[in-house]
Amino acid sequence: MKALVTMVSTAALLLLATGSASHGRPAADAPCAGQIHANPGFERGTTGWTAGPRIVVFGDAARPAHTGRAYATFAGLDVTRSDLLRTTVTVPADCDLTVRFWVRTTTTETTRGDYLNVGLAVTGIPPKTRFSLAFDGGAQWRQYSMSSGTATTERTATVSFLASETAGNGVTTFDVDDVTFTLG
Q1: How confident is the model at residue 29 (pLDDT cuts 50, 70, 90)?
Q2: Helix, strand, coil proportions of the chain in percent (round to 5)?
Q3: Cα(115)–Cα(133) distance, rounded to whole angstroms?
Q4: Pairing state of beta strands 50-51 and 81-91?
């Protein structure tokens, strides 16, 4: 009888310690949770991003980053040209991707000529420009947000920032920082 009580006590302690009677693996993290881009704030330069030749990522005490020390800038040169910054992430099935980013705009323009188009292209959905920002964006950091929606299959999502300048219309600089990619 003493052996039976000892065995039952040992089984009860095992259940208390493990939280269950099964010997399965611990539950995996939910696939629709958390930040999925390794370099959202450009702290490691353009790692994880495809950047045009004129995209500069740096820290500057006179023009500080939103957070950290680095950000991407589409430099205002008052020439006719375009700059592209983009990245692609994988969105698991049944998950929604929310992309949030911060933009600061400094300009000498008085009419729209320079702009920053922000796009989101998701597998199975036609690419779409979600924001078209111009000189009136403001010299303070402002946050914007966009979402992919959910689907029953895994997809890829490409976020792009395309800045375009027109010569002779004044100088506009768009700064981008803290581009977070959160699954929900």
Answers
A1: low
A2: 10, 45, 45
A3: 5
A4: antiparallel
